[in-house]
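re: ur question from earlier - yeah i can do the single chain one, its not a big deal. heres the input i used so u can compare w yours
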Amino acid sequence: MAGSDQTVDESRRRAYLQAMGIEAWVPRAGVSPPVAAPSSGPHRAAPPVVDLIEPTPPRVAAAPLVTPPPEVPPTPAQDRQPPPEPGSTWEPVWESAWEPVWEPPPGLATPPATASSTVPAKHAVPADVADPAPLLEDPGALTWDALATAVAGCRACALCETRTQTVFGVGDRQARLLVIGEAPGADEDREGQPFVGRAGRLLTQMLAAIGLARDQVYIANILKCRPPNNRNPHPGEVQHCHGYLARQVELIQPRAILAVGAVAAQNLLGTDTPVGRLRGHWFDYGPAAIALRVTYHPAYLLRSPDQKAKAWEDLIEVARRLRAAS
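and the output i got, formated as tokens:
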């Protein structure tokens, strides 16, 4: 009777476990279940052995291999510069700038002839500044018409490649007053006359204030061609045009010269003194010792109208000199 009850209880236990989704351990065929050691106490059934299936852990992708950066050897102690001591004079060591090496393209044996091919870039001199080319004719022996023709066809520097036309000069060729500016601008390059546009209109008003019409004076520039982007003239460019301007001065023989702006004044007088220190004085210009006065450029006066009073003082002195010379 006890054996049949044990069989019923075992069948019921397995049914319960199966309903709960638990797999019970079943002895394999031909293998005897383990025999429990005899116990002196009341008989208890051995606990069933459950075959638990452990879940398989998910696969994790292996991390990519990272190549460590190469180790940089430490700078030797002798190459390091110690910080300056308090109160000492310390000069940093400057390394020479890296400069690229020109590589000729296939089929070209030698690099093109440029200033940078023979001179380092940081010391290169513009081609139109170094070694001015000789003029085709000596301006010192030319008449007015021959001089104008020579200027119109001048190709002594690179400005001839970017100009629209030359700006020779305009006005009375026997004028008592010669006005000299720096270089043609965009308006002058387009119209072929010096001092047009807003700055030119202001100059005309300044001359009228001392009783001179525009056609009673002669107006010229240091340069006969417009520099690109209205930059300041290079020294070599001024040297190219110097003979033309000097011949104009010889032909006009003015009583006075009015140099307007820093570029004109400094090149005519051979100095780098600012205009503010040059104005207010008379200078002798050229072999004939022509009286020269410096004033501000009309374009500067348009930007700084508070300086017009000083320009008026310069004009008054020019008018006095012209009256004294007549």
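Residues 139-325 form a domain with the Uracil-DNA Glycosylase, subunit E fold (CATH 3.40.470.10). not sure if urs matches, ping me
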